[in-house]
Amino acid sequence: MTYSNLPYHRLENKADLDVLLEDIGEARVVMLGEASHGTSEYYAWRTAISKRLIEEKGFTFIAVEGDWPDCFQVNKFVRGLCKPGTKVSDVLKHFNRWPTWMWGNWEVAALVEWLKENNDRPNTNKVGFYGLDVYSLWDSLQRIMKYLEKKDGQAVKAAKEAFKCFEPYSNDPQEYARAVAYVSEDCEEEVLTMLQELGKKEREAPSNPEAEFDAEQNALVAVNAERYYKAMIMGGGSSWNVRDEHMMETLDRLLKFHGPDSKAIIWEHNTHVGDARFTDMARAGMVNIGQLAREQYGRENVYLAGFGSYEGSVIAGDSWGAPMKKMEVPPARQGSWEDWLHNLGGGSDKLLLSRELREIDEVRQQIAHRAIGVVYDPNREKYGNYVPTIIPERYDAFLYLDETEALRPFILKTKEKEPPELYPANE
């Protein structure tokens, strides 16, 4: 088979994004993927797209595949709510859970600085920055306790009961998950009660809407994280679904919080952004936020953009919790989506629009599409790291970058207690 007739647009500079912005149209949610968590160009191009969406289409916030408490510190910084003299590097040091490089890097620092400058300008759209993920069980509980320090009543009592329930497990999610896997007693009732009481209290006496939303979201994280860790120990795809359903619930809450005219930019891995129904994830009963958003808001209101590259370098770890290192990304497997695009048009960077691909029979079948996770072994390229994908259905657009470089991480000290292995090998 030959794929030399695939239509594409050049992708050399920011002006080449005009066709993408036009294709996005009036979509309310734009999801920007990545084929790894450690590639500089993915962050740089997502930043360029995000800036234009904010400036030209009035997008309200960016939500990323990161922990809510840490990302909320970034939100406070870009909104000018941190103490005077706080630098972007001070804020990004909060991202000290492995893999620290995902958000603790210079590429993200450039985006955060721009967001703050944008928000500091008078008469401009004030843009927020939030985390969608579910891992921060203890951090979220601690944030709730701090928020409630000067309050009293049932919400405080419920929070203390929830915190007390988790104390025996020494801040170790895996220990908690193992402990409750084979017994009926767990902390689900305590965290649900805390969420209900906190929500009731804030609805009765609202004062600082963003702080109240933060406290309630931390309670929701605690509820869903508790479910996530239990599901993870039992195995299968259920824990993945708990996680992406939490991300979708968080996105929906953010859109409602910011009002009917709000618009969201999402930064996550392709395995979350690209509609799971058009990959082998569907056979395993797995869903993701890209699929859920299309189903909930309508396909015309959700725009999914995937990313990929042929070769280069990446930041990843040899195993879960291992030191990060710069690794070689070998040329893509022969016959893969990335291999086709490398051989198309002399190996140039390209932007492909799905509406222009859907009439071509060859790409309406499952094609191997590379996915690099935070744990990566370049020597396994022949055996893994590829997701069978119907490209023009999984995404609305695809940005192909022929050769890419590893991102530039901060050197951050990792927390001693880490969650267990949570990411699949290709995410």
Tell me what you see in this structure.
The chain has 2 domains: 9-133 and 263-404, EreA-like (biosynthetic domain) (EreA/ChaN-like  fold, 3-Layer(aba) Sandwich), CATH 3.40.1660; 137-237, no CATH class. Helix 6 runs antiparallel to helix 7, helix 6 packs antiparallel against helix 10 (209-234) and helix 8 packs across helix 10 (209-234). The two termini are 30 Å apart. It is of the alpha/beta class and 427 residues long. It has 16 helices and 11 strands. Mean pLDDT is 85; it is low at 416-425. Strands 1, 2, 3, 4, 5, 6, 7, 8 and 11 form a 9-stranded mixed β-sheet that branches. Strands 9-10 form a two-stranded antiparallel ribbon. The protein has helices spanning 18-24, 40-57, 68-78, 88-92, 106-120, 137-147, 154-166, 173-181, 188-204, 209-234, 238-258, 270-273, 289-297, 337-342, 354-357, 391-394; strands at 9-10, 29-32, 61-64, 128-131, 264-267, 302-316, 325-329, 350-353, 367-370, 386-389, 397-404.
Fourth-tier CATH superfamily name of the largest domain: EreA-like (biosynthetic domain)
- The CATH architecture category of the largest domain equals 3-Layer(aba) Sandwich
- What oligomeric arrangement do these chains adopt? single chain
Mean pLDDT: 85
Task: Count structural domains.
Answer: 2
> What does the radius of gyration come to?
21 Å
CATH topology of the largest domain: EreA/ChaN-like  fold
Question: Low-confidence runs (pLDDT<50, min 5 residues)?
Answer: 416-425
Taking the alpha carbons of the first and last residues, their distance comes to 30 Å
For this structure, what is the CATH class of the largest domain? Alpha Beta
InterPro entries: Emycin_Estase, Hydrolase/PRTase-associated, UCP036794_erythomycin
Pfam families: Erythro_esteras
Protein name: Erythromycin esterase-like protein
